Each structure stands twice: as C-alpha cells, then as structure tokens.
UniProtKB/TrEMBL annotation:
The lineage of its organism: Bacteria, Pseudomonadati, Pseudomonadota, Alphaproteobacteria, Sphingomonadales. It comes from Altericroceibacterium endophyticum. The gene is ccoP. The chain crosses the membrane at residues 32-54. Keywords: Cell inner membrane, Cell membrane, Electron transport, Heme, Hydrogen ion transport, Ion transport, Iron, Membrane, Metal-binding, Oxidoreductase, Repeat, Respiratory chain, Transmembrane, Transmembrane helix, Transport. The keyword Heme applies. It is found in: Cell inner membrane. This is Cbb3-type cytochrome c oxidase subunit.
Amino acid sequence: MANKRIDKPTGTETVGHEWDGIEELNTPLPRWWLWTFYACIVFAIGYTIAYPAWPMVNSATKGMLGWTSHEQLAKEMAKADESKGAIRAALAKIPIERLPEDSELMRAAVAGGRAAFKVNCVQCHGAGAAGSKGYPNLNDDDWLWGGDLKAITYTLEHGVRQPDGEDTRFSMMPAFGADGILTSAQVSQVADHVLSLSGKAKDNAAGAQIFADNCAVCHGPNGKGMREFGAPNLTDPIWLYGGSREDVIATVTNSRYGVMPAWKDRLDPVTIKMLAAYVHSLGGGEDFVEVAEDPATEVDEQS
Ligand code: HEC
Ligand code: HEC
C-alpha cells in the first residue's frame, strides 16, 4: 500500500492505515508464539491421523493406532473384574466366622454386601435396614434368630418359615385367641403381663400365670425370648409387630408368621457371605465366640 512507511522512533513498518493521524505498526508476532502455533498445528494433524477424529457419513476416521473408547472401557472393566475376582476367591475360601480376622477382606465384603443389599433386601428391610412393622430392624442388637456371622449366614441361606425349605428357620406361635386356646379375657390379662415386662403396664398375677403356662416355652420364663424359636424378647422396647396394647392383643389372638426368603438358591455363596458381613457390620453384630460362651444367648446348634 502506498501509505506504508517506516516509523522513525520504533524502526517498524506501519500497516498503511491512518485515522485522524493515528497509524498502526506492523509488529511481527513473537517467534516463540509462532513456533508454538506451528507445533500445535503439527500435533493436531498427527493426532487426527493417530486417533479417531474426522466425521464421515456413517462413522468417523478410525485412526492409525486403532484406539477405541469402547475397548479402553472393556480393558478397565476386565481389570476391575480381576481384582474383584481375587476378593471373591478369597471370600469363597474363608469360613465366615474367621472373616473378622482379615480386616481388609472384611471391608471388601461389607462393601459388596451393601451393594447386594440394595438390590435384594431393601424392599422388605428398608434402605437403611431399619425395617418396619413385621420386618426386623437389622441395625440393632435385638436378634430373633441370632446375630453372629454364622447365625446370620444361616438365616440368609435358609430363610424363615419357607414352605418347602427343610432347613429353614421355623416356629409357629399358636393363635391363642382365634383358636380358642385362651378366652379374650385371658388374652387381655396375658397382654397386660407382656406389657408389664417392659414397664408399660402393672403386674397381674393371672396374666403372669397364663404366661408361664402358655408362653414361657418359647419366650422364656422371663420373656427374654429364645433364638431356637425366633421368639422375640418381650422385655425390651423393640417391637416387631407393635407394642401398643391393641397390637399385643392382636398378636396373641391371631399369632404372627413372618416369612423371609431363602437366598441360597437365588444368590451365590460369596454374595451371601458379603450380605452377612454387611448386616453384621450394621451395629448389632455379635462376636461368634462370645455368643457361644454365653448359654443365655446361645445360638441354634445347627446354624
Ligand atoms: C420378602 C421380604 C424380605 C426380603 C426380600 C428380605 N427379608 Fe430378611 N426378613 C424378612 C422377615 C419378615 C424377617 C423376620 C422373620 C421372622 O419373623 O422371624 C426377616 C429376617 C431377617 C434376618 C433375621 C433377623 C434376626 O433378628 O434374626 C436377617 C439377618 C435378614 N432378614 C436379612 C435379610 C437380607 C440380607 C436380605 C436380602 C438378601 C433380606 N433379609 C431380604 C423379610 C425379608
Ligand atoms: C411356639 C412358640 C411360641 C409360643 C408358645 C408363644 N409365642 Fe409369641 N412369638 C413366637 C414367635 C416365633 C414370634 C415372632 C413371630 C414372627 O416373627 O412372625 C412371637 C411373637 C410374639 C409377640 C410379638 C412381639 C413383637 O416384638 O412384636 C408377642 C407380643 C408374643 N409373641 C406374645 C406371646 C404370648 C403372650 C404368648 C403366650 C400366650 C406367646 N407369645 C406364645 C413364638 C411363640
């Protein structure tokens, strides 16, 4: 352009434009910037050759390296499976009651059990395993059938009151009112006795006698419950079917029959171990050895 000239003070050529006497210098780009820019172009071209990049009609260029995100995912999954496989193999080998000795394996089992619980158990026991009426809370140390790892595993494997489970946990409280074993007045008296065990009603001699004659075989002479029969402790404030007078009268009149699925045919043994570890970890888990030493809370022999 005609107006281009060398700017005296800087020695740089101008671009040739002029606005009200103001001109623009044609300062060259810094060399480092330029080379970085060229390097980026070279890298970008190289990248689109090496990796999948340019969109085509139905797919995209595949890239010389043959890399796919799909394959990378598959490889990572395989690696994760491999490490999981090692944990599963170790779990398959260790007897459940020895699991607490290996704190790392125990932690892995609890994590796996938590995941399996969400799939298989929450519909009955609730997301936090807190249970609801008829479905026991698994967070507390109040156990129907036993709270050490072996007892929990047995409960999970064989379920409770499964119609064709030979080894299922089983017992049946009679329907004292409905079947005419007790009159409704007697049901009322024994209900008051049950409530008196947790301080919710006054003692009554008649109720205590009825309890001793009809209930102590399963719930124990003091009403503390017996795990051989899955008979709940009636002296604590924890109720499976409700602790109001009406609830207790309904239980004694009609009985209850809680059913829990047997999981041994639906889940593999390792998953069952993981679930047992998870349930055991929730807060009420009992030490296997201690339980065996204390005859008052002895667990079912066959478990
Ligand atoms: C269909 C409902 C249902 C599902 C699903 C279910 N449970 Fe249960 N579970 C019950 C009931 C009901 C009982 C109480 C049985 C009784 O009255 O003795 C029970 C009892 C238990 C006990 C014994 C508690 C004790 O105090 O001894 C454990 C442990 C247990 N469930 C764990 C699990 C786990 C783990 C799963 C998932 C694999 C699961 N349950 C799935 C209904 C269910
Ligand atoms: C054959 C054993 C057996 C006998 C006898 C028996 N029970 Fe039970 N009782 C059980 C079992 C098992 C349960 C738990 C049922 C379930 O989990 O579905 C239970 C549950 C109860 C509950 C509910 C507790 C709760 O936490 O909600 C009460 C109350 C109760 N029994 C009172 C009595 C009284 C009172 C008698 C005597 C009149 C009696 N039982 C006799 C086995 C027995």
